[in-house]
């Protein structure tokens, strides 16, 4: 007559991550524009706080498949608040917010001409 709470791992780092739900950008963007937006975000993100090594791990996770991303998040000690990685924390409590455009493509992405 054990309790059923044994399913709960109790470890925020072990939270299963997933890609964001389909989303639409405020205006149509090309793949080249999306790439520039992502580069600009990753270049400036560390200037808004947090540790560079956590930003680097988040970028690697954002650009990896889900299995590898899960391993990166776990090994970096990143605490996932939202399973789509839009809000995370490091072990010191610093908050990291990622826009959906660095995590997946919008539904209104248009081809480069």
UniProtKB/TrEMBL annotation:
Residues 1-30 are annotated as: Disordered. Residues 1-15 have a biased composition (Basic and acidic residues). Gene3D superfamilies: Ub domain-containing protein, DC-UbP/UBTD2, N-terminal domain. Residues 15-112 form the DC-UbP/UBTD2 N-terminal domain. InterPro entries: DC-UbP/UBTD2_N (IPR032752), DC-UbP/UBTD2_N_sf (IPR038169), UBTD1/2 (IPR039869). This is DC-UbP/UBTD2 N-terminal domain-containing protein. It comes from Nepenthes gracilis (Slender pitcher plant).
């Amino acid at each position: 007559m054990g309790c059923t709470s044994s399913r709960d791992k109790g470890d925020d780092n072990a939270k299963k991550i997933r890609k964001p739900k389909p989303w639409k950008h405020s205006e149509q963007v090309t793949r080249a524009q999306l790439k520039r937006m992502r580069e600009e975000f990753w270049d400036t993100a560390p200037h808004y706080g947090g540790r560079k090594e956590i930003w680097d791990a988040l970028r690697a996770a954002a650009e990896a498949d889900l299995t590898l991303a899960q391993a990166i998040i776990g090994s970096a000690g990143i605490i996932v608040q939202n399973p789509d990685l839009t809000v995370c924390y490091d072990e010191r409590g610093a908050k990291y917010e990622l826009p959906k455009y660095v995590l997946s493509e919008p539904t209104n992405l248009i081809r480069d001409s």
